[in-house]
Amino acid sequence: MTTTMCSSDSPPFPFLFLPIHLQERILSLLPVSYLLPLLSISRAFPSLLRSPTFPSPPPDLFFLLFSPASPPFSSILSFHPSSRRWISLPIPSQSPLSLSRPSATSSSLAICIFPSTGADNAGPSTVSSPLVAVRMFSRLPPQEIPPMIPVGDPYVLAVIPDAEVNIPRSSDHFKILAASSWKYGVFSQVYDSRHGKWVPAGEIQSQFVVLGNTALINSSLYVHAYLPDQLLQFDLISHTWKFIIPMPGNMMSSHIFSYGQNLYLVSGFEDVGVMTTIRVLMLNRGENRESLKWREISILSETEEVFEGFTGGYCWLFHFEAVDRDGLVCLHNSLTNKVLLFDVRDRSWVLVPPCGPVQKDVKWYGYATEMGLEVLMPGAAG
Q1: Computed over its alpha carbons, how large is the radius of gyration of the chain?
Q2: What torsion do the CA atoms of 308, 314, 318, 320 make, to the nearest 10 degrees?
Q3: DSSP, res 17
Q4: CA nearest neighbour of 78 among 92, 89, 68, 70
C-alpha cells in the first residue's frame, strides 16, 4: 500500500490523497517562493516539504535591488522576475546582512564585513574588518573567514560555491577570490573553505586601477579590469591569470556576465560624452586568441521608448549599475531610480514597473540570489 499525506485535522485537499512520491514530484516543479504559502495551509505540507526525500525545486531567483540608505537593514526590496513582482524580503536582526552590504554573492551565499566599518559604502570590502560567509535565507550562524594575506589593500572579487564549478550540489564548500594592487601589479589570493586558509594565487604584471565585476564559466573566472580596460581570465584550479582581449572603446558604463558557456558584455556607448546606446556584445571564442572578438547581439538606442523610459525622458544617461543571474541583467539608473531588465535568452529589453514611492528613500543594493530549500526550514528568514 502506498502511503498518503492527509491528517484528520487537515481540510480535504484532493492533492493530499495522492501518493507521497507524486506529491513530492509535483511540488518539486515549483519555485520555492510558490511553496512558502503552503506551510500555513495544512499541517501536512510542512512535514512534506521538510522531508529529507523532498527533491530540490528549481532555483528561485531574486534581484536584491534596494535597501535603506544606511544600516541597520531590516529588509531588502527585491524584484522577483518569474512573477514580475516587487517583494520585501526581511533580514534577521542578528544577521551580518543587517549591518553590511555584501562584498560578493553567488546563489544564496554572501560574503560580508562584520562588524561593519562604513557599511553605507557599497564598494569593495577591505581587510580592515573580519569577513564572514552568510547563507542569505537561513538562520544558520555566519562562518568567520580568517584575515586575508596583508599584501596591499585586498578586496573581495568573487565568491564561488562548489556547486557553481560542477561539484555536486550537496557540497557546502566555496572559494573566495581577492585581489590587491601592489608594486609589481596586482596580487591575488584565494580562500578555500575546505582548508580554511588563504593562499597566494598568482600575480598580474600590469598596473590596473581596479578589478571590476566577474563572470564564471566552468572553472574560469572572467574579470573586467579597468584602466587599462581589459578582459582577464583566472583559472580557479591552477590559480593562473591570462590576458584575454581588450574591452571595446567608447564605453561609459559596462558589466560582464555569463550564460551557458558564453560570455557577454552589456555596455553604454557614448556620443559626445553622453550615452546614446546600450549594447549587448558576446565574446566569440575562436580556435586561438587572435580570433577572439566582441560581436553585437542586441542594441537599445536613445530613440526607443524603453530607453527614454529608463532615462526618465529628461535626464542624460552617463552611468548605470548592473547585477545579473541566469541570463537576466538588471540595469539601474541612479538619476531616475528606474530599472531596466535584459533577457539574453530572447534578447528582450523590458522597463521594470516602479515599486512605489518607497523607492525614493532607498539606495541601490545590487545583488542576485537564489532562494533554496533552506527557507522552508523552521526558523528560516522570510
Answers
A1: 22
A2: -50
A3: G
A4: 89
The cell for 95 is 544577521
Q: Which residues contact 190 (CB under 8 A, 6 or more apart)?
A: 175, 176, 177, 178, 198, 199, 201, 236, 239
**Which of 334, 277, 266, 319 shows the shortest CA–CA distance to 302?**
277
* Continuous H helices in the chain: 20-27, 32-35, 44-49, 305-311
Task: Give the number of other CB atoms < 10 A from CB of residue 326.
Answer: 14
Each residue's pLDDT expressed in tens, for the chain with a length of 382 residues: 344 444 445 455 788 888 888 888 888 888 887 887 787 777 788 888 888 888 888 878 999 999 998 888 988 999 999 889 898 888 878 888 888 899 999 988 999 987 644 444 444 444 445 899 998 877 778 999 999 999 999 999 999 998 887 655 556 899 999 999 887 789 999 999 999 999 999 898 888 888 999 999 999 999 999 988 999 999 999 999 999 999 999 999 999 999 999 999 999 998 888 899 999 999 987 656 667 899 999 999 999 999 999 998 777 888 999 999 999 999 999 888 899 999 999 999 999 998 876 566 789 999 998 887 766 666 554 4
**C-alpha span between 228 and 224 (Å, rounded):** 10
The counts of H helices and E strands in the chain are: 4, 24
CA atoms within a 13 Å half-sphere pointing along the CA-CB vector of 166:
9
How many C-beta neighbours within 10 Å does residue 287 have? 7
pTM of the model: 0.85
